[in-house]
Amino acid sequence: MNETRNQAIGLLFLRVSGALFLLWVHGLPKLLNYSEQLKLIEDPFHLGASVTLWLAIFAEVLCPVLIVAGVLVRLACLPILAVLVIALLVVHPQWTLFEGQFGWLLMIIFTSILIAGPGRLTLGHRVA
Fold first, then answer.
1. How far is CA 82 from CA 34, 107, 111, 122, in A?
2. Fewest beta carbons less than 10 Å away: which of 5, 49, 54, 69?
């Protein structure tokens, strides 16, 4: 299916804004305040705080950077969605929809990107 110019711009906007938002709000604070975050992070699978934090940093720093660049976008959505599912259903199962709305909105954004793909406006795509 040929993607229209508006669809390409829409996918670019969704991809870049969602990824930068996740990176800025969750990823960079974990990376820049690593020692503090190490004391605060939940460890629901008993992997150890350090391993759990590095997995979260992978999903919330590296994966958004890949998504912004348009590289391995669908694959990069999977760790993000895994962290969100774990946060919403395992770590905070008591949260109401209201309390977890930010997480659910991120699930909607990254599931949409997973389904739709990155669009044609990526670093690896040649535009004619």
1. 21, 10, 11, 24
2. 5
Q: Give the chain's end-to-end CA distance (angstroms, integer).
A: 16
Give Cα separations from 126 to 5, 50, 108 (angstroms): 14, 40, 28
Whole-structure pTM value: 0.90
Burial, 19: exposed, middle or buried (Cβ in 10 Å; 0-12, 13-18, 19+)?
Answer: buried
pLDDT in tens, the chain (128 residues): 567 889 999 999 999 999 999 999 999 999 999 999 999 999 999 999 999 999 999 999 999 999 999 999 999 999 999 999 999 999 999 999 999 999 999 999 999 999 999 999 888 665 44
Joined tokens for residue 50: 């350090």
For residue 58, the tally of other CB atoms under 10 A from its CB is 15
- The closest of 120, 98, 118, 96 to 19, measured between CA atoms, is 118
